[in-house]
Amino acid sequence: MVGQDSHLQSPAKKRSLLDGISNLSIPTATDLDTEPGKVNCKAVREIEAAASKFDDSEMCDGYVTEIYDYLHNMEKEAKRRPLQDYIDKVQKDVTANMRGVLVDWLVEVAEEYKLQSDTLYLSITYIDRFLSLNPLNKQRLQLLGVSSMSIASKFQEINPPTLDDFCYITDNTYKKEELVKMEADILKSLQFEVSSPTINTFLRRFSRISEQEPEYPDLQFELLGCYLAELSLLDYGCVKFLPSMIASSIVFLSRFMFHPDKHPWNANLEKFSGYKPADLQECVLLIQDLQLGKREGSLVAVRDKYNQHKFKYVGLMKGPLQIPNLYFES
C-alpha cells in the first residue's frame, strides 16, 4: 500500500489498482508485437535515436536565443500552468499519492509502447492542468491518464497507439467511447492548447551547454538528466516549479554528482537558463531527495527503467548526500 490515504498500490510487479479503480497490468512485448495495429517500435526507436542527437542550437544558431526567450515566456502563461495546490483546492477524491502511482504506471506504458519522451512529459502536463480545473472521481483517474497519453501521442508520435491499444493496456477496464469522451473533456479544459514547453524542452538545451565542457561525458550525462527528469514527474511537489527551473536544477544536480568538488553552476548556464544558484536551491534539494529515495521511494518504474544497461545504469549512480551551501550562493 502506498500511503494510508491511498486506494492504490505500486504498479511494480503486480501493477494493479485497488478498490476497483482499474487494473494497471501491462501486456508483454510479445503481445504488443503480434497484435495488429501496434506501434512500429523499430521506427520509433530510430526517431528517438535521431532526436537524442538533435542539437537545436546548431540547427538555428541565428535565432536560437529568440526561440528560447519565447519558450520561457510561453511556459509562464497561466493557461499552460497547473495550480500548484490543486490537490487541496480542487480535488476531493484524488490525492498526491494517487497521482504519483498513475505517473509511475504511465512511465511503464510509455516504455512498453516505445513512445518518445516528449509524449510522456506532455501527458503529465495535461493531467495536472485538467486536475487543476476539474474535480475527478478516483475511479476515473486511470482513464484520465490514458486519455491524456492518447492526445499527447496523436500530437507527438508518427505512429501513435490506437484507442484499442489504450483500452488493452488498461485490461479493457474502459471502452473506446469512454476514452473518446474523456479526450474531448481534456481538450475543452485545455482550450485545445496542447503544445507546451516541458522539462525536456529545456533539458536538451541546458545539457548541450554543459556538455561543451569535456569533464561531462555526453551520453551518460544526458541519461542521468533524463532519469532525474522522469523522477521529478512523480512528485506533486514539483508541480509548482516551472519546467525550465526543473531542467536547470537537474543539470545542476547532475554536474554535482559527476564532480562534487567543482561548483555545479557557471556564468554560461546562468546566462542561458536565467537562473542563479540561489534560485534553484529548493528545487535541486527536492530532486536530490527523489534521487536518494527519500521521496516517492515506493514508486519504482523510473528506477527500474534506468537501472538497465541501455541506460548506462544511471539509476544506480550515487553522489554525496550533502550539497555544500556555498554552491547555492550567488
Plain-language structure description:
- The protein has 330 residues and is mainly α.
- The chain has two domains: 29-40 and 81-189, Cyclin A, domain 1 (Orthogonal Bundle), CATH 1.10.472; 199-328, Cyclin A, domain 1, CATH 1.10.472.10.
- Helices cover 55% and strands 0% of the residues.
- The chain contains 16 helices and no strands.
- It has helices at residues 29-34, 41-52, 56-59, 64-75, 86-89, 96-112, 117-131, 141-156, 163-169, 176-189, 199-210, 218-234, 243-258, 267-273, 277-291, 301-306.
- The N and C termini lie far apart (42 Å).
Show unreliable segments: 1-23, 27-57
Query: What quaternary form is this?
Result: single chain
* SSE topology string: HHHHHHHHHHHHHHHH
The CATH architecture classification of the largest domain is: Orthogonal Bundle
Q: So, the CATH homologous superfamily of the largest domain?
A: Cyclin-like
Shape: globular
Largest sheet: none
Q: Tell me the span between the first and last alpha carbons.
A: 42 Å
Helix fraction?
Answer: 40-55%
**Whole-number mean pLDDT:** 83
Number of strands: 0
Number of helical segments with 4 or more residues: 16
The secondary structure category is mainly alpha
Reading off the top of the CATH hierarchy, the class of the largest domain is best stated as Mainly Alpha
Strand content: under 5%
Number of domains: 2
User: How large is the radius of gyration?
Assistant: 19 Å
CATH-defined fold name of the largest domain: Cyclin A, domain 1
